[in-house]
Write a structure and sequence with these properties.
- There is one protein chain.
- By secondary structure, the chain is mostly helical.
- It has 3 domains: 1-44; 48-129, Orthogonal Bundle (Arc Repressor Mutant, subunit A); 133-175, no CATH class.
- The chain is built from 7 helices and 3 strands, in the order αααβααββαα.
- It has helices at 2-15, 21-41, 48-59, 65-72, 76-88, 110-130, 136-168; strands at 63-64, 92-97, 100-108.
- A 3-stranded antiparallel beta sheet has the order 1-3-2.
- A hairpin with a 2-residue loop joins strand 2 and strand 3 (100-108).
- Helix 1 packs antiparallel against helix 2 and helix 2 (21-41) packs across helix 6 (110-130).
- The protein is flat, with a radius of gyration of 20 Å.
Length: 175
Amino acid sequence: MLAFIMHTCFISLMIRKQNDPVGSMFHDIAHLIRLQIDETLKPYGLTRLKWLAIGIVADNEGFSQVELASRLELKSAATGKLVDRLVERKLVERHPDPSDRRAYRLFATEKSNALLFELEPLGSRLRESTLNGLNETEVSVLKTMLARVKANLLAAALTVIAMVALKSEVILPMV
């Protein structure tokens, strides 16, 4: 774990451009959270991605692999391999899609539901340790500021999507 933290700090120093500590901090925080989650899940034989996948399937019974791939931001081949591993461990079941014989629908198992229930306190503890030392007001302000940053990034992404659509003359659906 120490090696990962040192690696994170080294990478952080490398990516700092024009002395931008905010961007570097976002990177560092996200990386350290991922490391913490993966380390916490090791005794369960899970990774962050597997935990996320079974949680998505449990919350969206009957999801297709394509829908899961989209939510996980993975290619379909990688999602297929991930689902294969989850099926092998009896954490997810695949059932043929009645409306498309090439597709499968995914369902959580009793085993995965029990595991998610067991892991719920771990998620709470990770959140608590991440925000340790911040009072309720500080957490509230942090959430508000991060929501604003996220909104800015989403607006920028939508602008890029709109510009690409205009250049390629793609007609976007009205939302």
